[in-house]
Amino acid sequence: MIGLDISSSSVKLVELDMDERGQYTLLRAAMEPLEKGSVVDGNIEKLDDVVEAVRKVVRKSGTKAKQVAMALPPSAVITKKIVLPGELREEEIEVQVESEANQYIPFAIDEVALDFSVLGPSATSPGDQEVLIAASRREKVDDRRGVAEAAGLKPVVMDIEAFASRLAAQRLIERLPRAGLDLLVALFEVGATSTSLQVLRNGESLYDRDQAFGGAQLTQMIARTYGFSLEEAEAKKRAADLPDDYATQVLAPYMDSLTQEIARALQFFYRATPFGRVDYILLAGGSSALPGLAEKITATASVACMVINPFEGMAVAESVREKKLRSQAPSYLTCCGLAMRRFLQ
């Protein structure tokens, strides 16, 4: 099974293998840009363009796999933890979940794709169990399923983007001091149109927040400063074909703004929770690898900040172009988490 991540700016594919010792190998990774407006706020607006991008990324990767794990944006999914008696069997839980879901979902139950996962014993209610409910409008699920099927793939997992990125990040958090135990880690994903924050501890998300600031702002600044169209600015940004004063006139002010957005998001977290600081900041997403950004955030937030590579510590197949992958790796966090679902089924 491959992971397939459809974002507002690109389609990404990852295929992993695992040996008997639990060590991962990256078999394939590929990315195909999407035209602006193909996916807006997580909604697929130009179906044919997205299907064609999926076909291209599959061809580019060379994979023969047909089964695929995909994900919905958190904004398209309602999640709720509930507590149920510990002795319930799975079919009994299913009946209870449908009953509970009616209280939280503002749509008719037959318009909804609904699933649940038993998390384990309740920490606050002895003898009971915690169950996570996830629900989305069926049309949102069908849109992504339709893209996969039109491209000749078979969707078998529909995850939530934030859950997939958390799964991939947790493997890296376990490489931190004390194997990550009890550390508060702020995971920022800087996407094309927004930056998301999850604060994680021991594999659980304690807090999440989205801010409308991402790589698109850098493209707009390039276009404004040099008189390019947005399409020209995006192409020149990707090709690193920009005037000599770009670093001082455009990139430095953008990095200042992004750093302030990240510092502001942390302040919101501190005000909304009992916590006064985090132990680490991890950066992922397309704009996270800008030279000097992690150091600037470390200085501003007074917290160690690092750009993460979701493939760190993995063996890499000969077919993967490692040099190109290194610069793009932070963009693959969610997709890597989706590919890891192959081994959790």
List the helices and strands and how they pair.
Elements (H helix, E strand, L loop, with lengths): L1 E5 L3 E9 L5 E10 L5 E2 L2 E2 L2 H15 L5 E6 L4 E9 L4 H15 L7 E10 L6 E10 H13 L3 E7 H13 L11 E6 L4 E7 L2 E8 L3 H12 L3 H10 L6 H27 L7 E5 L8 H9 L2 E4 L7 E2 L5 H7 L4 H8 L5
Parallel strand pairs: 1-6, 3-16, 6-10, 11-14, 14-15
Antiparallel strand pairs: 1-2, 2-3, 4-5, 7-9, 8-9, 11-12, 12-13
Helix pairs in contact: 1-3, 4-10, 5-6, 5-7, 7-8
List keywords for this structure.
six-stranded mixed β-sheet, SHS2_FtsA, 345 residues, Dna Ligase, domain 1, PilM, Type IV pilus assembly protein PilM, alpha/beta, Nucleotidyltransferase, domain 5, FtsA/MreB
Protein described:
By secondary structure, this protein is an alpha/beta fold. Among the domains are: 76-138, 2-Layer Sandwich (Dna Ligase, domain 1), CATH 3.30.1490.300; 176-309, ATPase, nucleotide binding domain (Nucleotidyltransferase, domain 5, 2-Layer Sandwich). The chain is 37% helix and 30% strand. It contains ten helices and 16 strands. It has helices spanning 47-61, 90-104, 138-150, 161-173, 215-226, 230-239, 246-272, 293-301, 322-328, 333-340; strands spanning 2-6, 10-18, 24-33, 39-40, 43-44, 67-72, 77-85, 112-121, 128-137, 154-160, 185-190, 195-201, 204-211, 280-284, 304-307, 315-316. It has a six-stranded mixed sheet, sandwiched between helices. Strand 4 (39-40) and strand 5 form a beta hairpin. Helix 1 (47-61) crosses helix 3 (138-150) and helix 5 crosses helix 6 (230-239). The longest helix has 27 residues, at 246-272. The protein is globular.
